[in-house]
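Entry 14. Ran structure prediction on the chain below.
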Amino acid sequence: MPVPRLKASPDLSPNLQALPLVREMLARPGQLQVEVHTLDYVTVIDCGVQAPGGWEAGRLFASICLGGLARVELHWMNFGNWQWPAVEVNTDHPVRACLASQYAGWSIKKDKFFAMGSGPGRAAARVEDLFLELDYEDCPGPAIVCLESNQLPPPEVVGYIVQQCKRNPADVYILVAPTASLVGSVQIAARAVETGLHKLMELGYNLGLISSGWGICPVPPVAADDLAAIGRTNDAVLYGSMVHYNLRDEDANIASLVAQVPSQASRDYGQPFGELFRRYGDFYSIDPFLFSPAEVWLSNLNSGRTFHAGSVRPDILASSFGLVV
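Output, structure tokens:
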């Protein structure tokens, strides 16, 4: 089975472990340039819709998305003749932090509102088939939902989220950031490890063999609108991210797998994501195997050998990011 079953545990609960990070946001909204609202007892934190947001808010947003089970840091990343800000993530609980929490798998639609939901609250709502495979429901307590949207959720959407999470309204926290915002850029770039895990799952690999993940990805400059931002944020992962996983397997299995993992294994590799979207007209026609990190390292803890495939593409990134280098 490609996805290991997870057991509920308070010290590994994404919602319980992320709650102190949410409280940090609530304690210093002015410093983080976020705005806090209360709607029918639910706490809504605006991280880029009307509030400006910032680098530290983006780092915290990403950490919350990962259920407090990963370290998130901001660094510079070297692309040869130029450097660029990047977000680095490492976790010793990759499936729990990335798939049971961070993965943006909850499509929230109600009336004219639409957002992709991620974060630890997904493990309370359990509306996705993935949680049937994980056989996981989070411990009782808070539910923290992270929305990628350029709108704050209206009352009917907030009520829907509360209902799906099966929590008291006062225990529900909703964070919102548009794709075209600094927080949006940071939190999406922080998904390189998760993107690689999801690709491995799609390839049928047993994720229970993976013990840890580490990744770095450039943070794309904020685009003029969400459609352009979707192109840039995808390009950052597809052509700029590097991930490393520690695992325990047979060398022969890893050797036959590694070349299939990075984005260059896709038939659509080599074109900026915005051009692909214009060509196909929708996301679903794009090769799903494209959604992968640019460069992958797999270290076998059994043999001590490390396998590698893929490479970053500074040329595509510079064009996508609108850089003059």
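The radius of gyration is 19 Å. Will compare against last week's run tomorrow.
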